[in-house]
Amino acid sequence: MFLKYAPLAGALLFAGAAQAQVGITADLGTTGAGFHLVVPMESNLNGRFGANYFQHDFDRTTNQVDYAIKGKLQTFDILFDWYVRDGSPFHLTGGLVYNGNRFDATARTDQFGAYSLNGNSYSAADIGIVKGRIEYRKAAPYLGIGWGNALAAGNGSHWSFNADLGAFFQGNPNVTLGNWGCSSLAAICTLVARDVAAERLRLKDDVDGFKVYPVVRASVNYRF
Predict the structure, then answer these.
(1) What is the SS3 assignment for the chain?
(2) Residue 108 belongs to a domain with what CATH number?
C-alpha cells in the first residue's frame, strides 16, 4: 500500500534535504505504521508531514447480528510541534489529519445459514448478503502533547526518539447497510429491507461513541 506513496515521500525527502536541517521518522502506534518528514518552521516550531497505515480484522455483535469487520486505517498528517521552552523535548501539537479510516461490515449467518434481523429470521439463500460500511469525515483536527525533537541540535547522535499522546476528532460516523441478492417474493424483500434499515440504525448507535480517535505513537527519528 505504501508503495504508491513512495514517489511522494521521495520528493518530500529530496526537497527537505536541500534545507539546513530535516528529519525523518518511523512510527508505530494506534494509527498503524507510518513515517513523517520533519522540517523546521520557527526556532521553537517544527512541522511534521506524513502518512500512516494499518489493516485490522475483527468481529462485532450489534443486537443479534454478528458482523465480520475488515478495518483499514489510513491517515495523512499535517502537524505542528511547538516547544514551549528552549532546549526542552516537551511539545504541544496541533494540526489536521486526512482521515481515510473505514470499516467494511459483513453480517454472518448462524449455524443454520440464517440471519436474525430486527427480531426476524431469514435464510441467507433467500435474501442474499447483508453488508455495509462505516466511514468518518475526511478532515479531522488533531490536538496532543509529545516528547522528543528529531531536529534537536544538541543530540550527540543523528538518532533520537519521540512519543505522541493525543487524539483527532472524526465526528459522527456515516454508516451504510443493505442486502443484495434477495430472491424471495417482493413482499418478503420489502420486509427484509425494512429490517436491514432498522439494523443500520442500531449499528450506527453502536459506533457513535467513536467520535474521537486516540493517538498513542512512538517514533524512531533520524536527523540529516
Answers:
(1) CHHHHHHHHHHHHHHHHCCCCCEEEEEEECCEEEEEEEEEEECCEEEEEEEEEEEEEEEEEECCEEEEEEEEEEEEEEEEEEECCCCCCEEEEEEEEEECCEEEEEEECCCCCEEEECCEEEEHHHHCEEEEEEECCCEEEEEEEEECCCCCCCCCCCEEEEEEEEEEECCCCEEEEEEECCCCCHHHHHHHHHHHHHHHHHHHHHHCCCCEEEEEEEEEEEEC
(2) 2.40.160
